[in-house]
Amino acid sequence: MPSYLFWLFATIMLIGACAVIAFRNPVSSALAMVTSFVGLAALFIGLSAFFVGVIQILVYSGAIMVLFLFIIMLLDLKDEKKRSVSFAPLVAGLVLVGVFFIQLIGVLSNNPNKTAPPLDAETLAKASEDFMNDGKATKISEALSSGSLPDVHLIGNSLFTEYNLPLQILGVLLLVSTVGVVVLSKRQTN
Amino acid sequence: MPSLNDYLLVSGLLFSIGLAGVVLRRNIIVVFMCLELMLSAANLTLVAFSRFNVAENGLPSYDGQMLVFFVITVAAAEVAVGLAIIVALYRARQTIHTDELVSLKG
User: Domain A1-78 belongs to what topology?
Assistant: First the structure.
């Protein structure tokens, strides 16, 4: 990704994030959050993580933020009232963020400034041999030798081989959370 | 081409903004959204590391992206449960401002 696109999307993301905090109305905050996530998805796609970029938009901006908006409107929240700024949380927040930021600068100044390794047709064609099945071409190796990155296929490949057990556990987790939500939102009877 | 440090700086900034929101805001739903921002900042770091650290065959190392996949799924489950808790809380107390929620007694 060219540098100017990186900084453009990074700025969109950070301004969106600042707006989440700055707006008093929760609906505006949620919409600012959607903007922020769209910028983040663009950064993911710039890192050639196409699958992650797409699920960032589908799951986060699509499903999760709609759920947030739904709850905000269900509870019929009013704008947060202006209140006298209490001193302690403000100082705590600023100090916490300041310390974190100083630490970040310290880490970055010691870090060798790595540039992205090339991902051109030659590298991809060389990697295609790893995905041959007994010398026969597979879908992944065909796509790699034609010079495109089959991102979804590669992720699916490792998801169902190396990471199969975590995937099953994740299924159980989703089931548990579904049951948990139903139990929590059941009207309590005395 | 942006370097690894640029990505780390941007994701650190995003994390700081999320943290500031958690500490400063009073509306529990906005606090919850800021938690999501912090998770996303971690996701950005993971994807950046996965792109900048090639595996032996020259492709990006996909372990980082698998972790991001799992983080997004867990975040979705967490949001569902968290919002259900907020709705239950609102039913019991008629408020979602953290200033007014000071006792744990149900």
Answer: Four Helix Bundle (Hemerythrin (Met), subunit A) (1.20.120)
